[in-house]
Design goal:
single chain, alpha/beta, 7-stranded mixed β-sheet, 4-stranded antiparallel β-sheet, 12 helices, 14 strands, about 40% helix, globular, binds pyridoxal-5'-phosphate
Length: about 350
Protein backbone atom coordinates (compact mmCIF):
# COMPACT_ATOMS: atom_id res chain seq x y z
CA UNK A 1 0.00 0.00 0.00
CA UNK A 2 1.38 3.41 -0.94
CA UNK A 3 -0.51 5.21 1.80
CA UNK A 4 -0.88 3.12 4.98
CA UNK A 5 -3.82 3.48 7.34
CA UNK A 6 -1.48 4.94 9.94
CA UNK A 7 2.27 5.28 10.33
CA UNK A 8 4.22 6.33 13.42
CA UNK A 9 6.17 9.58 13.56
CA UNK A 10 9.62 8.77 14.95
CA UNK A 11 12.32 11.41 15.40
CA UNK A 12 15.80 11.82 16.86
CA UNK A 13 14.21 12.20 20.28
CA UNK A 14 12.86 8.62 20.20
CA UNK A 15 16.19 7.34 18.80
CA UNK A 16 18.26 9.11 21.46
CA UNK A 17 16.15 7.82 24.36
CA UNK A 18 16.01 4.31 22.88
CA UNK A 19 19.79 4.13 22.55
CA UNK A 20 20.20 5.53 26.06
CA UNK A 21 18.00 2.72 27.38
CA UNK A 22 19.88 0.17 25.28
CA UNK A 23 23.29 1.39 26.41
CA UNK A 24 22.18 1.35 30.04
CA UNK A 25 21.78 -2.42 29.87
CA UNK A 26 18.34 -2.12 31.51
CA UNK A 27 16.14 -3.56 28.81
CA UNK A 28 13.43 -5.39 30.77
CA UNK A 29 10.38 -4.08 32.56
CA UNK A 30 12.24 -3.94 35.89
CA UNK A 31 14.76 -1.34 36.97
CA UNK A 32 14.91 0.74 33.80
CA UNK A 33 14.90 4.50 34.30
CA UNK A 34 12.56 5.28 31.41
CA UNK A 35 9.59 3.39 32.89
CA UNK A 36 8.97 5.78 35.83
CA UNK A 37 9.71 8.75 33.54
CA UNK A 38 7.14 7.56 30.99
CA UNK A 39 4.60 6.98 33.75
CA UNK A 40 5.16 10.41 35.32
CA UNK A 41 4.98 12.20 31.97
CA UNK A 42 1.73 10.48 30.97
CA UNK A 43 0.13 11.06 34.39
CA UNK A 44 1.03 14.74 34.21
CA UNK A 45 -0.17 15.11 30.62
CA UNK A 46 -3.58 13.65 31.40
CA UNK A 47 -3.87 15.12 34.90
CA UNK A 48 -3.87 12.01 37.07
CA UNK A 49 -2.10 11.02 40.28
CA UNK A 50 -0.99 7.48 39.36
CA UNK A 51 0.10 5.80 36.16
CA UNK A 52 1.32 2.23 35.65
CA UNK A 53 2.89 1.34 32.33
CA UNK A 54 1.88 -2.03 30.87
CA UNK A 55 2.71 -4.08 27.79
CA UNK A 56 -0.36 -3.12 25.71
CA UNK A 57 -3.78 -1.51 25.85
CA UNK A 58 -5.60 -4.83 26.03
CA UNK A 59 -3.90 -6.03 29.22
CA UNK A 60 -4.43 -2.52 30.62
CA UNK A 61 -8.16 -3.33 30.52
CA UNK A 62 -7.59 -6.80 32.00
CA UNK A 63 -5.57 -5.19 34.81
CA UNK A 64 -8.30 -2.65 35.58
CA UNK A 65 -10.93 -5.42 35.64
CA UNK A 66 -8.85 -7.68 37.90
CA UNK A 67 -8.07 -4.81 40.28
CA UNK A 68 -11.79 -3.99 40.53
CA UNK A 69 -12.50 -7.63 41.36
CA UNK A 70 -14.50 -8.44 38.24
CA UNK A 71 -14.90 -12.19 37.81
CA UNK A 72 -17.25 -15.11 37.32
CA UNK A 73 -20.94 -14.24 37.55
CA UNK A 74 -20.39 -10.51 37.06
CA UNK A 75 -21.63 -8.37 34.18
CA UNK A 76 -19.75 -5.46 32.64
CA UNK A 77 -21.50 -3.06 30.26
CA UNK A 78 -19.49 -2.23 27.13
CA UNK A 79 -20.41 -0.40 23.91
CA UNK A 80 -21.76 -2.49 21.02
CA UNK A 81 -19.46 -0.65 18.61
CA UNK A 82 -15.79 -0.52 19.56
CA UNK A 83 -12.54 -2.33 18.90
CA UNK A 84 -12.98 -5.74 20.53
CA UNK A 85 -10.60 -5.53 23.51
CA UNK A 86 -13.08 -4.33 26.17
CA UNK A 87 -15.50 -7.21 25.47
CA UNK A 88 -12.69 -9.76 25.12
CA UNK A 89 -11.08 -8.83 28.45
CA UNK A 90 -14.41 -8.96 30.30
CA UNK A 91 -15.00 -12.44 28.87
CA UNK A 92 -11.41 -13.49 29.65
CA UNK A 93 -12.01 -12.45 33.28
CA UNK A 94 -14.87 -14.98 33.37
CA UNK A 95 -17.54 -12.26 33.44
CA UNK A 96 -20.21 -11.43 30.85
CA UNK A 97 -19.87 -8.39 28.61
CA UNK A 98 -23.30 -6.78 28.11
CA UNK A 99 -23.62 -4.58 25.04
CA UNK A 100 -25.12 -1.09 25.12
CA UNK A 101 -26.08 0.62 21.86
CA UNK A 102 -24.37 3.83 20.81
CA UNK A 103 -25.96 7.26 20.42
CA UNK A 104 -26.40 8.29 16.76
CA UNK A 105 -25.31 11.90 17.45
CA UNK A 106 -21.94 10.99 18.95
CA UNK A 107 -21.33 7.28 18.19
CA UNK A 108 -20.52 6.96 21.92
CA UNK A 109 -22.14 4.46 24.27
CA UNK A 110 -25.58 5.86 25.08
CA UNK A 111 -26.01 6.45 28.83
CA UNK A 112 -29.78 5.92 28.50
CA UNK A 113 -29.08 2.42 27.16
CA UNK A 114 -26.58 1.79 29.95
CA UNK A 115 -29.27 2.74 32.47
CA UNK A 116 -31.60 0.11 30.99
CA UNK A 117 -28.93 -2.62 31.26
CA UNK A 118 -27.79 -2.16 34.86
CA UNK A 119 -28.63 -5.17 37.03
CA UNK A 120 -27.54 -6.24 40.54
CA UNK A 121 -24.74 -8.18 38.80
CA UNK A 122 -23.29 -5.14 37.01
CA UNK A 123 -19.76 -4.84 38.43
CA UNK A 124 -18.30 -2.18 36.11
CA UNK A 125 -18.93 -0.12 33.00
CA UNK A 126 -16.30 0.26 30.28
CA UNK A 127 -16.70 3.61 28.52
CA UNK A 128 -14.72 3.79 25.28
CA UNK A 129 -13.75 7.18 23.83
CA UNK A 130 -14.01 5.91 20.26
CA UNK A 131 -12.22 7.51 17.32
CA UNK A 132 -10.93 10.61 19.10
CA UNK A 133 -14.19 11.63 20.80
CA UNK A 134 -14.99 11.68 24.55
CA UNK A 135 -18.05 10.07 26.11
CA UNK A 136 -20.60 12.31 27.87
CA UNK A 137 -19.11 11.73 31.31
CA UNK A 138 -21.61 13.77 33.34
CA UNK A 139 -24.53 11.71 32.06
CA UNK A 140 -22.58 8.46 32.27
CA UNK A 141 -21.38 9.01 35.86
CA UNK A 142 -24.84 10.04 36.98
CA UNK A 143 -26.19 6.85 35.40
CA UNK A 144 -23.46 4.64 36.86
CA UNK A 145 -23.89 5.85 40.46
CA UNK A 146 -21.58 3.68 42.58
CA UNK A 147 -20.67 1.31 39.74
CA UNK A 148 -17.04 1.92 38.77
CA UNK A 149 -16.27 3.22 35.29
CA UNK A 150 -13.25 2.02 33.34
CA UNK A 151 -12.44 4.57 30.65
CA UNK A 152 -10.74 3.12 27.57
CA UNK A 153 -9.05 6.16 25.99
CA UNK A 154 -6.89 4.14 23.57
CA UNK A 155 -8.15 6.03 20.53
CA UNK A 156 -8.50 9.51 21.93
CA UNK A 157 -5.16 10.96 23.09
CA UNK A 158 -5.77 14.72 23.33
CA UNK A 159 -9.57 14.69 23.18
CA UNK A 160 -11.39 16.66 25.89
CA UNK A 161 -14.74 16.61 27.62
CA UNK A 162 -15.69 20.01 29.06
CA UNK A 163 -12.08 21.14 29.12
CA UNK A 164 -10.67 18.02 30.76
CA UNK A 165 -8.47 15.45 29.05
CA UNK A 166 -9.78 11.97 28.29
CA UNK A 167 -7.98 9.50 30.49
CA UNK A 168 -8.96 11.53 33.55
CA UNK A 169 -12.59 10.38 33.84
CA UNK A 170 -12.59 6.68 34.69
CA UNK A 171 -12.11 5.27 38.20
CA UNK A 172 -9.41 3.62 36.12
CA UNK A 173 -8.53 4.90 32.64
CA UNK A 174 -6.46 3.07 30.05
CA UNK A 175 -4.38 3.94 27.01
CA UNK A 176 -2.84 1.89 24.24
CA UNK A 177 0.51 2.72 22.65
CA UNK A 178 0.11 0.34 19.68
CA UNK A 179 1.82 1.58 16.53
CA UNK A 180 -1.32 2.98 14.89
CA UNK A 181 -2.34 5.00 17.97
CA UNK A 182 -1.64 8.73 18.25
CA UNK A 183 1.09 8.26 20.91
CA UNK A 184 2.95 5.01 20.37
CA UNK A 185 5.92 2.89 21.37
CA UNK A 186 5.11 -0.04 19.06
CA UNK A 187 3.36 -2.17 21.69
CA UNK A 188 2.52 -0.63 25.03
CA UNK A 189 -0.16 0.77 27.27
CA UNK A 190 -0.96 2.27 30.63
CA UNK A 191 -3.54 2.42 33.40
CA UNK A 192 -4.22 5.66 35.26
CA UNK A 193 -6.13 6.42 38.43
CA UNK A 194 -6.34 8.89 41.31
CA UNK A 195 -7.12 6.10 43.79
CA UNK A 196 -3.95 5.04 45.68
CA UNK A 197 -5.35 1.64 46.70
CA UNK A 198 -6.30 0.76 43.13
CA UNK A 199 -2.91 2.01 41.92
CA UNK A 200 -1.07 -0.17 44.43
CA UNK A 201 -3.19 -3.21 43.55
CA UNK A 202 -2.64 -2.74 39.82
CA UNK A 203 1.12 -2.34 40.22
CA UNK A 204 1.25 -5.57 42.23
CA UNK A 205 -0.94 -7.59 39.85
CA UNK A 206 1.07 -6.45 36.81
CA UNK A 207 4.28 -7.61 38.51
CA UNK A 208 3.54 -11.27 39.39
CA UNK A 209 1.40 -10.34 42.39
CA UNK A 210 4.60 -9.57 44.27
CA UNK A 211 4.66 -7.31 47.33
CA UNK A 212 6.73 -4.23 46.39
CA UNK A 213 10.30 -4.55 47.69
CA UNK A 214 9.82 -8.11 48.97
CA UNK A 215 11.22 -10.58 46.40
CA UNK A 216 9.23 -13.80 45.95
CA UNK A 217 6.50 -12.77 48.34
CA UNK A 218 3.34 -13.00 46.23
CA UNK A 219 0.29 -11.57 47.97
CA UNK A 220 -2.19 -11.98 45.09
CA UNK A 221 -2.36 -14.07 41.92
CA UNK A 222 -0.47 -11.90 39.48
CA UNK A 223 0.55 -11.52 35.87
CA UNK A 224 3.58 -10.24 34.03
CA UNK A 225 2.12 -7.27 32.20
CA UNK A 226 5.11 -4.91 32.55
CA UNK A 227 6.24 -2.55 29.80
CA UNK A 228 9.95 -2.93 28.95
CA UNK A 229 12.41 -0.07 29.28
CA UNK A 230 13.21 0.13 25.53
CA UNK A 231 9.54 0.68 24.72
CA UNK A 232 9.17 3.11 27.63
CA UNK A 233 12.04 5.18 26.17
CA UNK A 234 10.20 5.56 22.87
CA UNK A 235 6.96 6.16 24.78
CA UNK A 236 8.50 8.98 26.84
CA UNK A 237 9.69 10.74 23.69
CA UNK A 238 6.21 10.45 22.22
CA UNK A 239 4.51 11.81 25.35
CA UNK A 240 6.95 14.74 25.28
CA UNK A 241 5.77 15.36 21.68
CA UNK A 242 2.08 15.03 22.70
CA UNK A 243 0.89 18.41 21.42
CA UNK A 244 2.88 18.17 18.20
CA UNK A 245 1.61 14.65 17.42
CA UNK A 246 -2.04 15.21 18.32
CA UNK A 247 -2.14 18.58 16.51
CA UNK A 248 -0.60 17.03 13.40
CA UNK A 249 -3.41 14.45 13.21
CA UNK A 250 -5.98 17.15 13.84
CA UNK A 251 -4.43 19.18 11.00
CA UNK A 252 -4.87 16.16 8.68
CA UNK A 253 -8.54 15.96 9.75
CA UNK A 254 -9.02 19.65 8.93
CA UNK A 255 -7.41 19.13 5.53
CA UNK A 256 -9.83 16.26 4.86
CA UNK A 257 -12.76 18.41 6.01
CA UNK A 258 -11.74 21.21 3.66
CA UNK A 259 -11.07 18.93 0.68
CA UNK A 260 -14.39 17.08 1.13
CA UNK A 261 -16.67 19.92 2.22
CA UNK A 262 -18.73 20.09 -1.00
CA UNK A 263 -19.21 16.29 -1.00
CA UNK A 264 -20.25 16.40 2.65
CA UNK A 265 -22.93 18.95 1.71
CA UNK A 266 -24.18 17.48 -1.55
CA UNK A 267 -23.84 13.68 -1.30
CA UNK A 268 -24.72 10.97 1.19
CA UNK A 269 -21.17 11.13 2.52
CA UNK A 270 -21.14 12.23 6.17
CA UNK A 271 -18.36 12.87 8.60
CA UNK A 272 -18.19 11.28 12.03
CA UNK A 273 -20.16 13.72 14.24
CA UNK A 274 -18.69 15.78 17.08
CA UNK A 275 -20.91 16.77 20.02
CA UNK A 276 -21.01 20.46 20.99
CA UNK A 277 -19.59 19.60 24.43
CA UNK A 278 -16.70 17.60 22.98
CA UNK A 279 -13.25 18.55 21.76
CA UNK A 280 -12.31 16.02 19.13
CA UNK A 281 -8.72 14.85 18.68
CA UNK A 282 -8.59 12.95 15.43
CA UNK A 283 -7.16 9.44 15.63
CA UNK A 284 -8.29 8.07 12.25
CA UNK A 285 -10.39 10.30 10.01
CA UNK A 286 -13.76 8.61 9.77
CA UNK A 287 -16.62 8.95 7.27
CA UNK A 288 -19.95 7.21 6.62
CA UNK A 289 -21.57 6.29 3.32
CA UNK A 290 -24.26 3.72 2.35
CA UNK A 291 -21.98 2.32 -0.37
CA UNK A 292 -18.95 2.12 1.87
CA UNK A 293 -17.62 -1.18 0.54
CA UNK A 294 -17.58 0.07 -3.05
CA UNK A 295 -15.71 3.23 -2.01
CA UNK A 296 -13.14 1.24 -0.06
CA UNK A 297 -12.58 -1.12 -3.00
CA UNK A 298 -11.83 1.86 -5.24
CA UNK A 299 -9.47 3.41 -2.69
CA UNK A 300 -7.66 0.09 -2.20
CA UNK A 301 -7.32 -0.34 -5.97
CA UNK A 302 -5.44 2.97 -5.86
CA UNK A 303 -3.06 1.83 -3.10
CA UNK A 304 -4.86 3.69 -0.33
CA UNK A 305 -5.34 1.62 2.83
CA UNK A 306 -8.84 2.77 3.75
CA UNK A 307 -10.67 0.42 6.16
CA UNK A 308 -14.21 -0.38 7.17
CA UNK A 309 -14.97 0.30 10.83
CA UNK A 310 -15.12 -2.70 13.20
CA UNK A 311 -17.87 -5.28 12.90
CA UNK A 312 -20.36 -4.34 15.64
CA UNK A 313 -19.67 -6.67 18.54
CA UNK A 314 -23.37 -7.57 18.68
CA UNK A 315 -22.93 -9.20 15.23
CA UNK A 316 -20.01 -11.44 16.26
CA UNK A 317 -21.35 -14.97 16.97
CA UNK A 318 -18.94 -15.47 19.89
CA UNK A 319 -20.70 -12.61 21.72
CA UNK A 320 -24.30 -13.65 21.01
CA UNK A 321 -24.82 -14.07 24.77
CA UNK A 322 -23.97 -10.41 25.32
CA UNK A 323 -26.87 -8.97 23.32
CA UNK A 324 -29.91 -7.48 25.06
CA UNK A 325 -32.43 -6.42 22.42
CA UNK A 326 -31.61 -4.61 19.19
CA UNK A 327 -28.67 -2.39 18.26
CA UNK A 328 -29.91 -0.21 15.40
CA UNK A 329 -27.33 2.55 15.83
CA UNK A 330 -24.28 0.32 16.18
CA UNK A 331 -25.44 -1.64 13.12
CA UNK A 332 -26.11 1.48 11.03
CA UNK A 333 -22.69 2.97 11.78
CA UNK A 334 -21.03 -0.45 11.52
CA UNK A 335 -22.48 -0.90 8.03
CA UNK A 336 -21.37 2.45 6.62
CA UNK A 337 -18.43 3.93 8.52
CA UNK A 338 -14.86 3.76 7.27
CA UNK A 339 -11.43 5.14 8.09
CA UNK A 340 -9.18 7.10 5.76
CA UNK A 341 -5.40 6.99 6.29
CA UNK A 342 -4.36 9.35 9.08
CA UNK A 343 -0.82 9.92 10.37
CA UNK A 344 1.10 12.82 11.84
CA UNK A 345 3.56 12.39 8.95
CA UNK A 346 0.99 12.75 6.13
CA UNK A 347 1.29 15.59 3.63
CA UNK A 348 -1.34 17.84 2.11
CA UNK A 349 -0.53 16.04 -1.17
CA UNK A 350 -1.47 12.68 0.38
CA UNK A 351 -4.79 14.10 1.57
CA UNK A 352 -5.55 15.64 -1.82
CA UNK A 353 -4.76 12.38 -3.65
CA UNK A 354 -6.98 10.38 -1.28
CA UNK A 355 -9.85 12.86 -1.59
CA UNK A 356 -9.56 12.99 -5.40
CA UNK A 357 -9.71 9.18 -5.48
CA UNK A 358 -12.74 9.15 -3.19
CA UNK A 359 -14.37 11.80 -5.38
CA UNK A 360 -13.90 9.56 -8.46
CA UNK A 361 -15.61 6.67 -6.69
CA UNK A 362 -18.55 8.85 -5.67
C1 LIG B 1 -6.25 -0.26 20.16
C2 LIG B 1 -7.30 -0.43 21.19
C3 LIG B 1 -7.15 -1.28 22.28
C4 LIG B 1 -6.04 -2.29 22.39
O1 LIG B 1 -4.80 -1.80 22.48
P1 LIG B 1 -3.56 -2.76 22.15
O2 LIG B 1 -2.42 -1.95 22.68
O3 LIG B 1 -3.52 -2.93 20.67
O4 LIG B 1 -3.74 -4.03 22.89
C5 LIG B 1 -8.11 -1.30 23.28
N1 LIG B 1 -9.21 -0.55 23.16
C6 LIG B 1 -9.43 0.25 22.11
C7 LIG B 1 -10.68 1.05 22.06
C8 LIG B 1 -8.49 0.32 21.07
O5 LIG B 1 -8.72 1.08 20.01
Amino acid sequence: MTIPLSAPSLTDRERTYLLEAYDSGWISGMGGAFIPRFEAALAQQVGRKHCIAVSNGTVALALALQALGVGRGDEVIVPALTFVSPAAMVAAAGATPVFADIHPDTWMMDAAQVDRLITPRTKAIIAVDIIGHPCNYDFLKWTAGDIPIIEDAAEAHGAQYEGRHVGSFGDVSTFSAFSNKSITCGEGGAVLTDNPDLARRMRIIANHGQTPGVPYMHEVIGQNWRLNNLSAAIGLAQVERWDELTCARQRVAQQYDAALCDLLLTTELTRRPVAPWAKESCWLYCLHHPERDRLIAHLKANDIDARAIWTPLCDLPIYAGSCRGEYPNARHIGAGAFFLPTSATMTQGNVEFICATLRQAL
